Amino acid sequence: MTCGPSRRNEKGMTHASSPSARPLRVTRAQAPLSGSIRVPGDKSISHRALMFASLARGETHITGLLEGEDVLRTAAAMRALGADVTQNAPGDWRVSGLGIGKLREPSDVLDMGNSGTAARLLSGILASHGMVSVMTGDASLRRRPMKRVMDPLAGTGATFMAREGGRLPMAIAGLAEPRPLDYRLPVASAQVKSAVLLAGLNAQGQTRVEEPVATRDHTENMLRHFGAHVKVEETPQGGRVIVLQGRPDLVARDVVVPGDPSSAAFPIVAALLVPGADIVISTVGLNPLRTGLFITLQEMGAQLEVTNVRTEGGELVGDLHVRASSLKGVTVPADRAPSMIDEYPILAVAAAYASGVSRFCGVEELRVKESDRLAATVALLENNGVKTAVEGDDLVVYGTDNAIPGGGVVQTHMDHRLAMSASVLGLVAQNPVEIDDTAFIDTSFPGYLQLMNSLGAGFAL
Ligand SMILES: O=C(O)C1=C[C@@H](OP(=O)(O)O)[C@@H](O)[C@H](O)C1
Ligand SMILES: C=C(OP(=O)(O)O)C(=O)O
């Protein structure tokens, strides 16, 4: 059970608690989960739909938009930059864009809340407009590294001023005539790739990005959907080179947002673990660069069937039929990490319930998410009686063979995915699990606890 050579480390983070925390005590599920649900729209696609629609000429109609707090921050930012962004009905939005290079200087600080995607992608837009802007975020986002976008974007000629270590708040003096970038990503990050491509929209000539491992390609897909010319080539080493032709005429196009596979992960793992469970989740996005968790769970022995696969709004979607399963430990290769990067905390819960040992290879990027997810996942499991180890950049989880002791208090560190992972752990642990704060679940999965209750989870709300 080895992973091959491990990669470099980044610094861990400390945490702060929410002023209006919503604690939750979770007890073991009393009955099998059953029923059919839909999960909210894909977060990555929702952010991008609002940004690209604001940069396109004309009116874009978006259906299925995620109305989580992260995406609402992007909506507010695009409004502050002059786009007309309105909600018609739940999930149904209209955006009147201004065209590339035409956004207006914001009159106030842009607050991106808890969202790394919003902050990093927006940096690319701000750097490539002739305006001065200031961006901040909540305590979690203000601890996350922005140097990874500042460094490449400085190549456009834009200037950045940020706190020590490249942390928000950050001031950006952008340029109306940015230089096109040619950049090789030092980390596998769709956010950094997207920031470079967004800056390239307003640059004359070609912007080129090379990624060592393929990361989610929603930016490339949506750029094409709105009329840009984007060329993608695979490298012999398994990476990709993306070339964008600058100053395209982006034209409004309707966008249909599929269900978020990263959100579906929580009811999926809950249904795999709760004895007798049998559920269906319909219209989940199946972009192959997002489905590493599904492959991994199937390798563990999950009864996870994908049916009715179709294309909706240019994205592959399908329905997932999930039944309680007996899971065994798994080794997840490092090159699979980008396709399931947000799913490791919930996969760790599945691995803790499984029989045998699991190893997640090369998961160093977990250290720079909403929390240090490597440390926080270890604490989630250890505090509930599950043995783990961190070996270099690998996480090792010792399965309990369906006997997670539980009884622990879980610190969620302003991190939605930890809160949801802890809630699933509580459904199958032998003793109740206390979660310090579930409020941040609203950043990506508003209505999560209620939706889980509709399947029979019995969360005490
Ligand atoms: O581009 C995106 O929409 C995202 C990319 C990933 O981050 P990184 O680019 O930092 O890996 C992921 O963790 C995040 O939830 C969404
Ligand atoms: C890492 C995440 O999001 P972001 O980077 O946008 O805050 C996430 O949703 O798990």
Automatic annotation (TrEMBL):
Active site: 342
Catalytic function, reaction form: 3-phosphoshikimate + phosphoenolpyruvate = 5-O-(1-carboxyvinyl)-3-phosphoshikimate + phosphate
Binding-site residues for 3-phosphoshikimate, renumbered to this chain: 43-44, 48, 189, 191, 342, 369
Binding site for phosphoenolpyruvate: 43, 116, 144, 191, 373, 417
Pathway(s) served: Metabolic intermediate biosynthesis; chorismate biosynthesis; chorismate from D-erythrose 4-phosphate and phosphoenolpyruvate: step 6/7
One Pfam family in the UniProt entry: EPSP_synthase
Documented EC number(s): 2.5.1.19
GO annotation, cellular component aspect: cytoplasm
Keyword entries, A-Z: Amino-acid biosynthesis, Aromatic amino acid biosynthesis, Cytoplasm, Transferase
Region annotation (Disordered) ranges: 1-24
Oligomer status and interactors: Monomer.
NCBIfam families linked: aroA
Function of the protein: Catalyzes the transfer of the enolpyruvyl moiety of phosphoenolpyruvate (PEP) to the 5-hydroxyl of shikimate-3-phosphate (S3P) to produce enolpyruvyl shikimate-3-phosphate and inorganic phosphate.
Protein name (record): 3-phosphoshikimate 1-carboxyvinyltransferase
Source organism (scientific name): Acetobacter okinawensis
Protein encoded by which gene: aroA
